[in-house]
Design brief:
The protein has one domain. Helix content is about 80%, strand content about 0%. It has helices at about 1-25, 40-89. Helix 1 (about 1-25) runs parallel beside helix 2 (about 40-89). It comes from Enterobacter agglomerans. This is HAMP domain-containing protein. One of its GO terms (molecular function) is transmembrane signaling receptor activity.
């Protein structure tokens, strides 16, 4: 029973905790996976998924920042054009 708990139940519990955290938007979970069996591959897969999500979120944040920067430039250009148009009218 103790062996079953250490070999199967604890890693499954940890995998459940990690997936719950990722599902809640927490991408900071640390993995301490030293296993080379199926459970280790499961935990490694979860870690890879988390790293991929971190990368994706970072790219989205960078893209949003770039869109905001360009939008500001366009807005500034429109205001400038509007001012020049009013002066000519």
């Amino acid at each position: 029973a103790v062996v079953l708990k250490n070999v199967l139940i604890k890693p499954l519990r940890r995998a459940g905790e990690v997936t719950a955290a990722i599902g809640a938007g927490d991408l900071t979970s640390e993995f301490h996976n030293l296993r080379n069996d199926e459970m280790g591959r499961l935990l490694q897969g979860l870690e890879n998924m988390q790293l991929g999500l971190k990368t994706m979120v970072s790219e989205i944040v960078n893209g949003v920042s770039e869109v905001a920067r360009v939008t500001t430039q366009i807005s500034d250009g429109n205001h400038s054009l509007s001012s020049r148009t009013e002066q000519q009218a």
